[in-house]
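Q: Could you write out the predicted structure for this multi-component system? I'm mainly interested in how the pieces pack against one another.
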Amino acid sequence: MAFEVPKTAYSGKLRQIKLGSGDKALTVGGETSYSFHLFEGEMPNLPKIAMEVWDSPPEEWPQAALEPFLGVTEDPVLWAKKCIDDYGAEMIALELISTDPNGLNRGAEEAAEVVKKVVEAISVPLIVWGTANQDKDSEVLSKVAELCQGKNLILGPIEEGDHKKIGASAIGYHHTAIASTPIDINLAKQLNILLGNLGVPDEQIIIDPTVSGIGYGIEYVYSVMERIRMASLTQQDEKLQFPVICNISKEVWKTKEVRIPESEDPSLGDARKRGILMEAMSAMVLLLAGADVLVMRHPEAIKLVRGMITDLTAA
Amino acid sequence: MIKASPNKKLKVHFDPDNIDIIVEEGENLLKAAISAGVHITASCGGAGTCGTCKVLIKKGEVESTRTEKLSLDEWQQGLRQACQSKVITDLVVSVPVESRLETEVLSQEMKMVSAAGEAEALATGWGFNPPLSKLHLKLPQPSSKDNISDLSRLLRGIKQRYHLSNISVEFEVVKRLPHTLRKNNFKVTATTLVTAIKTKLDKRRPTIINIEPGDTSSKHYSLAFDIGTTTVCGQLLDLNRGRVLAEGVAYNGQISYGQDVITRIAYCQKPGGLKELQQAVVSTINGIIEKLLNQAKVSLKHIGHINVAGNTTMTQILLALEPKYLRLAPYTPIANFIPPVKAKTLGIKVGEQVHLFTFPSVASYVGGDIVSGILGSGVYQRKKLTLFADIGTNGEIVIGNSDWMVTASCSAGPAFEGGGIKHGMVASSGAIEGFEINPENLKPVIYTIGGEKPRGICGSGLINIVAGLLEAGVISQNGKFNTDLSTKRIRRGGDGYEYVLCLAGESQTGKDIVVTEVDIDNLIRAKAAVYAGCQTLSRSVSISCHDFEQVIIAGAFGSNIDIERSITIGLFPEIPADRFIFIGNGSLLGARLASYSTDMLDDARRIARMMTNFELSENVDFMNNYVAALFLPHTDGDAFPQVSQRLKKLPPRHRGKELAF
């Protein structure tokens, strides 16, 4: 008798959601099996990678991370274009670092104008990421939503404490909501229910489970993401059947292990290679756990991850 | 022997009910009594083994056999066991008071347990035989022919009159004996006390704890207490009639030293801390005793006994026993069965003779209060698979039936008793208990205990309020207010958003009474702990909540609890409401029954041995279940299909015009 691969019986299916607008709009989700379990089900939309762009010049990025973007970090529009033109970015994730009340504390109007410039300059979907300061994000992201009406931005992080204000804006101006909770399957589900009660359509929600890189608790993230995927696919938990976004680059590139120059600790080896591998490997782990959208930084790391996706989906 | 021939009709007359009934010859006398509506206690259900259905045949004859339950004396007096007797002639039967009292007490207890008098929520089969007895004696005066010692005279009298031997005597009684006997011509009343025995084979040994001149047997009282972490409840009992004469409740004086048992235990580690806490609760108890005596106009000297049910920590602190090791792994209590102690030595203001009994405990966090609840509600007597939940500062949960029982304890916090709630209070007069909301203008309609002007909110009131606000869409499923609603009832106060239940002009306190977001949060955490505890314990024994044939809820959080609304907030699983029975303060119920019945006292020991404790703190699922339960009604809406359905019908608050743009 021929060998048969044991198969998981799935009863649920992930929702497909559309990101962005126009020709370059993308669709994610729709899986009927665990990620890359193509022998068991389908993955109609491959995971997408958004490239990270900041709205103010980064001051603490390691040299290795800055190199690919030399000359454009002063201008988010140029930066975004470079990501798309030179590195083939399918999406852009604009981090509104400048609005941090503990930093530059730029006002909502000004920040929203920058977002508008970027969104008008590019055609790929745009993720807009606040500072996770609930009061400030409510103000900034609501303004962004209004100013970029109809662009179907992907807005976040939306947390329990600010979900009403930002959620209402997402409904009113038609954007996708990033439902962000601190690494817990129950909290993730609760926020999805609350957004649903508020009136956010199911097609406009994507889950941010909160992630961390290798060495910083990625096992825990993995298990929570895995449980979310199990609940949605094998237990038909409708309130968890949403695609998942993982904002991983920020987490990796701020770690000590990535930032220490080789000169300070030769045993850690080449800093550039180290950073790229840490980012790529963290991203790969998250892809296996069920990430549908990754926010990444280094073009070389992205190349590695794309290679992995191609390998795992080769017929 | 007279042969019974069928179809002959005979008349049986029952005294003192003065009821006649016509029966066929050969009918069982107990059955005849039941059809006549005459109450005769028959604990064993007619098997002839309990001896509680003794009746006196005044005229006529029955066909009956004498079992060991009837002495030859009794047989000769004409006493028969009704269940063992067949009617063969017309009869006049007198039902003795002992056989009636039990029935009366039982039916009263049933009424107290639930308005509907549901037999399924009360222990049955116990005889009315309080551990504390008063024996009135008219002893012969000493003479030259009869000059035995005073004590021998007393014991001889007791043996002759009450058939009691094997009695021990407290030294204090011996000391007072000569004067007391001679004060009223050797007419005295002795008070005896028995303790629980381990097995039915053990011999019970009564102790004479008090001796009074004259006949004081009509003044025969005891006290039952539930010592809760947050609330202390007491009742004054009439042991001649099996009645509650007065009832009192107060917050435990230890509250100011910490809201939960852990902080209390920690406080005991300070120099003098244990003594301070011990005195705090004793002072609460003394306050309640004073109120009870005033209310019932009973004199302190006639209190003979105190029965206390409390969790393990409360019990140990009350007895001034070091609670330190309850808190340290592997969590060991000092003793599961603590011997009786003289109440006065603890500082309780009662007579020197008064002994205080505490209920046996199972583990550090499964104490005498839950044993008492199981005892009172009779869960241990029935085959029905039962979920028993005692909702207090510690939620204690028992699953099982007469064959097995598992138990777990989870920390719910004081919210159910009004603790940690801005305008929370104990469930006494003036507490807001009922709540309705007008869905149009969002104005509340409130009802208070006793119909007085509102003073605050009790636990059951808080449940009703949160359920009402949720179903009206005033709060979201995360317990936060929908601040976009156009009503002045929702406003920003000192503790964030709040809903105004009652304006200053209408309240007893002269201040607005509100429920705050923090209050709602506290209730959500409390209910989540209880629900997660039930869920975790059920899963540990592979039982789904739909398997429960009966759910018994106990708690000191109100005169009643609205089951439907408790399900709405997700405190209890969504199973048919007719399976739920609320018995009020179960701990106090058990303490009371064990004051009425020595059988119950014995059963309490048995129950404590029978329960298997599960440590939720060591269970990995518990925390996960808890976080899932921190939502209204629950993160898993499918577990609450009806509530979820109702909530879905609420209009989204941000669609259409209501959108703030």
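A: Regarding packing and overall arrangement: Chain A has one domain: 16-310.
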